Amino acid sequence: MSLNRREFMRLLAMAGAAGMTVNSQVFGDAGVEYDLPTFGNLSLLHFTDCHAQLMPVHFREPNINIGIGDAFGQPPHVVGEHFLKHFDIAAGSAKAHAFTYLDFEAASRKYGKVGGFAHLATLVKRLRALRPNSLLLDGGDTWQGSATSLWTHGQDMVDACKLLGVDIMTGHWEFTYGMDRVREIIDEHLLPIEFLAQNIMLTEDASFEGKPAFDEESGQVFKPYTIREMNGIPVGIIGQAFPYTPVANPRYMVPTWSFGIREKAVRKRVAAARAAGAELVVLLSHNGFDVDRKLASRVDGIDVILTGHTHDAIPEAIKVNNTLLVASGSHGKFLARLDLDVQGGRVKDYRFKLIPILSDVIKSDQEMAGIIQKIRAPHEKKIRRVVGRADSLLYRRGSFNGTFDDMICDALLEERDAEIALSPGFRWGGSLLPGQDITVEDIFNQTAITYPNAYRSEFTGAFLKEILEDVADNLFNTDPYYQQGGDMVRVGGMGYTINTNNPMGKRISGMTLLKTGKPIEATKNYVVSGWASVNEGTKGPPVYDVVTKYIEKKKAINIPPNQNIRIK
């Protein structure tokens, strides 16, 4: 890595290393002393959507992130040069690399990988030494997204988060291990971490049957909020899990739990926290940024929303009425620090910094590194096995396509003998640079889920259009409360045109079967392969096996730019 003194100081200045004294003991060969004092009287530390990435990764930010209605052109829906201009960030800087996709290959080789829990632990310890009693809050999507997490049913991340010192968390993908496993972790393994989720209730039938719940009388499944005293100030933290879990993920995994935004319940929890003495109220949320922006405009009394789910990294706190919204990125790439001056039950002032975790700069914490090594040891040989090579940049993020998903679609088309392939618009999974080996671990970082079967079926053209229209409405509905986050379903073997500003049912046109160049016919059947179906009993080989087999055959993967999706 080539990072000179001036560049590194600029990086830390922009990251606001949050009162950290930088030295060779902590930051390896950087050898730079740097200190920014703490502010106010309490600090919140936040990360979210790490997707079980214990090890450092490359991660490319999106080149397309479309906002609808009032959100158009507003953070987080600005990318590339527009992002740099909006936040006054110098092109070519470490900060530009951290927050945008620009010059990604060259910048990745210059600045190295990001994240990794051992490096994150170093920073957390330093910040907590400077501001004792800081709260470390985890926004969820923590126990899923890697091979070791899948094979240990999330236990690897539970152990790592406990060592990291996480105080409180909420969830989303955690629920895809099923209710029994989630309850087992929370009841037997998670303490001292508190799991909060005010918006998960027992279904009516489950409540009647006396299914387990935090509050059996109300049907509240998990503890809704907690009060923590920080430097003499009572802080109320309310948990908000992903409200659309039974829609975005299989319903059969959480059959007795009911989800939702539950705006009225949020108001109730805010009032309850204030009545219990809270001078600061924080919503630890997995709603997604645009949902939380609307929520903040409608619910009074929330001082801070620590938002997650949509993987947005915003270098400033966004103020909506009297609420500060903090978006802390994903994949362990950032740690957010919000310093607050709370006086008389209100926030008088604040300072916010979103700190990139440059793993080539920050030395790893040896205690955490030891735990990670222990976690990975039984699986090391398998996950490190090389199955091929990336001859082009492979990445996932983008509103409509990513080259890693293009490759998954190619694998489904060939290995499952299909005409059309569908790959879900998941936002998790790292990036591979040209020339990098593709390992089993890299494949699982894109496909590690508990419902991985790659189905092969026949869909009519009309049904294919219905799928595309339905997903598009989940993303581009003008009402944020109807948006479920994620990106557009990826498509292989077919092209189409999308107009995101059109109403439901009229966004998709020009559907074309690529192998023939002919329009998709509404009444004709097409052989389709996909994965991550939410339907119980889906048959087919695991997608990670399909992709592995495909790469082993091809040996080298070169994915050209996708020109089959036209955006109006």
Please characterize this protein's 3D structure.
The structure is a single chain. The chain has about 575 residues and is of the alpha/beta class. The chain has two domains: about 5-375, Metallo-dependent phosphatases (Purple Acid Phosphatase, chain A, domain 2), CATH 3.60.21; about 385-565, 5'-Nucleotidase, C-terminal domain (5'-nucleotidase,  domain 2, Alpha-Beta Complex), CATH 3.90.780.10. It is built from 18 helices and 25 strands. The strands form six sheets. It has a six-stranded mixed β-sheet. A six-stranded mixed β-sheet has the order 6-7-9-10-12-11, covered by helices on one side. Helix 15 (about 405-415) packs across helix 18 and helix 16 crosses helix 18. The longest helix has 16 residues, at about 460-475.
Features:
6-stranded mixed beta sheet; 20% strand; 568 residues; 5'-nucleotidase,  domain 2; 2 domains; alpha/beta; Purple Acid Phosphatase, chain A, domain 2
